């Protein structure tokens, strides 16, 4: 509890940036953009697993480099039903979590100011916002790599 009181404004600013970033990303998927071919393919695989057209292991092994996206879409389809919105919401969540991970990683390797700069850029950069609203595997992989770097930073410096 003392740690939270000591770092209250720091935590509050990161939560504020997360909330703003989540809002912008959620607003971005409401315009209902059409799927690119690889987005549609991963969503179709998740849909086929959900409706029983293919088994989980067969569906996951089709695209080895997009397993996390297929699993994320599958969970989202189970929770929210089959729709384009539910296919894109995992990317919104992954992209929003990236704000927190960017802050933690930059703070670890520089200072609080560097962490806030990284979180700010991750929140508001247009390219990042555009990719966070697509049903694309890169954001799952980016968050995985960021978490890995947070856990294993001795080899980075």
UniProtKB/TrEMBL annotation:
It is found in: Cell membrane. Keywords: Cell membrane, Glycosyltransferase, Membrane, Transferase, Transmembrane, Transmembrane helix. This is Glycosyltransferase RgtA/B/C/D-like domain-containing protein. InterPro entries: LipidA_mod_glycosyltrf_83 (IPR050297), RgtA/B/C-like (IPR038731). It comes from the Bacteria. PANTHER family: MANNOSYLTRANSFERASE YKCB-RELATED, UNDECAPRENYL PHOSPHATE-ALPHA-4-AMINO-4-DEOXY-L-ARABINOSE ARABINOSYL TRANSFERASE. It is a multi-pass membrane protein. It comes from Candidatus Woesebacteria bacterium GW2011_GWE1_45_18. GO terms for biological process: lipopolysaccharide biosynthetic process; response to iron(III) ion. Pfam families: PMT_2. Coiled coil: none annotated. GO terms for cellular component: plasma membrane. One of its GO terms (molecular function) is pentosyltransferase activity. The chain crosses the membrane at residues 7-26, 85-105, 117-139. Residues 75-127 form the Glycosyltransferase RgtA/B/C/D-like domain.
């Amino acid at each position: 509890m003392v740690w939270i009181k000591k770092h209250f404004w720091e935590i509050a600013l990161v939560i504020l940036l997360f909330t703003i970033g989540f809002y912008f990303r959620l607003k971005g998927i409401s315009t209902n953009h059409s799927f690119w071919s690889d987005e549609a393919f991963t969503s179709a695989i998740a849909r086929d697993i959900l409706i029983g057209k293919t088994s989980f292991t067969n569906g996951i092994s089709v695209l080895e480099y997009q397993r996390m996206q297929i699993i994320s879409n599958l969970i989202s389809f189970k929770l929210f039903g089959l729709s384009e919105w539910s296919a894109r919401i995992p990317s919104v969540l992954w992209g929003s979590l990236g704000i927190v991970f960017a802050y933690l990683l930059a703070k670890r390797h520089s200072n609080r100011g560097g962490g806030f700069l990284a979180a700010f850029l991750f929140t508001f950069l247009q390219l990042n916002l555009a990719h966070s609203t697509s049903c694309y595997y890169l954001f799952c992989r980016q968050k995985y790599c960021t978490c890995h770097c947070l856990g294993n930073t001795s080899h980075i410096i």
